[in-house]
Structure prediction request, 181 residues.
Amino acid sequence: MAEVSSADKLDYVKSKIGEYADFPKKGIVFRDIFGALTDGKACVYLRDLLVRHIRDKYPDVELIVGLDSRGFLFNLLLATELGVGCAPIRKKGKLAGEVISVEYQLEYGSDVFELQRAAIKPGQKVVIVDDLLATGGSLLAATALVRKVGGVVLESLVVIELVGLEGRKKLDSNVHSLIQY
Prediction:
């Protein structure tokens, strides 16, 4: 059986991303990753694409950090495939032990992300993963947390980027998105 190209894998995954008009409010087109995650072939292809990207670009990565909550769908999977550790960044009050915090801005209001202080060693090379880059606030906060404990952010890796919201411009680290809308 012939190997499926990365371009064909990406096209297949993209074809499974759901699109919902006027959700969560009028005028917004919601891109739903769960359409792809309920399809077995799309899951395998998504894994392949993400793992290949990290292996090719950051073979020295030491830790995959996933953002609350959809980033958790990817960080353990990627860490396992790459043979490295993984750590969560969670909303305030969800992690035990000594944590550090960063407040970040949402479209309306703010929120707080936390990371266990011991999760990342000084100098450790980290890839941050999430499902979506929109306005950039959560990835900016995650980058700040990783750096606060001495980690080195190699890249923020997302499945979907909403380019019109220009979230990438807020970030001062490498960003890679598989799918752009």
